[in-house]
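Bench notes, afternoon.
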Amino acid sequence: MLGAQVPQAEKQLSSIGIKQNELGRAMRTHGLIGGLELLSKKLKVSGLDATEQAKVVSRAFGGGRQGATLLTLLQQLDVMKMKYRDIGAGANRSARRGSARRSSPSSPSSG
């Protein structure tokens, strides 16, 4: 069943200018956000209206829940990028605090 979906996905993605394996490469090198940015950019420049874009995404990603999930991610891409930045900033702060604690002299232990 999955094998039957691959040609359909390739056909739909090529209709908006995404070449075979291009989306996968974008995700491998730039993560989920990179893949979604590629898909979003290609949909915008395709000239399709919002309804047609939704059909392409739904058909390319199996319809139903999968297509709906991708549409939601695309619609919330800016929020998602902001959250990723916030998570990264929080991780950096935590790492700096941990590093500062490790490098500060420890208090003498009572013996």
